[in-house]
Amino acid sequence: MLKEILVKTGKRIELVDVTSEIQEIVSKSGVKDGLCVVYSPHTTAALIITENADPSVQRDIITKLSKMIPENEGYTHLEGNSDAHIKSAVIGNSRTVIVKGGQLLLGVWEGLMFFEGDGPRSRKLFVKIIEG
User: Hey, which of 31, 44, 73, 112 would disulfide with 118, CB 3.0 to 4.6 Å?
Assistant: First the structure.
C-alpha cells in the first residue's frame, strides 16, 4: 500500500511532526506487523526520528545544523539553497519504522519529523506499508 501526504511549511528551516499522519495511514492499512517506509522526494528536505515531546530539541537541531552548514558560505549553486541540499543529504530523505500490533514502533518520546530546509513550501511524503 502506497499513500501520499502533503506537508505545508511556514519557515525556511523547520521541523514538522508528521507522526500522527503516518500512524493514521498505518492504522487504516490494517497491517498489524511489518514495515512503514516514509520517503521525501525533495532534495532540500529530509526525515528525522527524534524527540517530539520537548520543542527545544527541535530548535537545538535546527540551530546546530545551521551552525555546521550555514546558509551563506560561498557556495557555487546559483539558486542560493546549497545549505538545504547539504543538510538534506546529511540527514537523509527516508526512514523505515517497524510496525507492531498496528502501531509504529517508536520510543516513548520519539516522533517522525519532516525537515524543511528551503521553505516555506508545500511538500509531499510517500508512505509505503509493507506487511510481514
Answer: 44
